[in-house]
Amino acid sequence: MRAALDAAAAVAAARKAGPEDRLRGERIIREGRAAVADGDLAAMASADFAFHDFVYSLAGNRLIAQTARMNWHHVRRSIMLLAGEPTKLGPFWDEHDQILQAVVGRDATAAAQLAQHHALASSRILSRLEAAG
């Protein structure tokens, strides 16, 4: 479900993105990368939420944002499961950056594909961590 929501939000966001949105998104990504570098799980979770909320807000669809926020605890759980290995979260910020570039580049197709891939990859990692732990 998250993959479909994130893809729909990315499409809508790409259709509405303006030049000022690039700066806002890049700031969030810098914060996320800094949190990973510092091993600060709370800051990682906060920045991850901020990035996804940025896309949902930019999309302008309250239903997508509300539904996604209801499932946020799953994302926080995956971050906490990686507590001993925070550097494994680094690639997620590369994915966030790719999504941002597609959104601000107004490439709705790429934004949807990248957002869907990111959500599915996150889900697979969470499933593996839960099975191992």
TrEMBL record:
Coiled-coil residue spans: none
Which Pfam families does this entry report, sorted A to Z?
A: FCD (PF07729)
The lineage, from the top, is: Bacteria, Pseudomonadati, Pseudomonadota, Alphaproteobacteria, Acetobacterales
Q: Which residues form the signal peptide?
A: none
Say if the entry is tagged with keyword Metal-binding: no
Q: What is this protein called?
A: GntR C-terminal domain-containing protein
Which part of the chain is the GntR C-terminal domain? Answer: 1-121
Statement: the UniProt record of this protein carries the keyword Iron: no
Keyword list, A-Z:
DNA-binding, Transcription, Transcription regulation
Q: Which SMART domains match?
A: FCD
> Which Gene Ontology terms cover its molecular function?
DNA binding
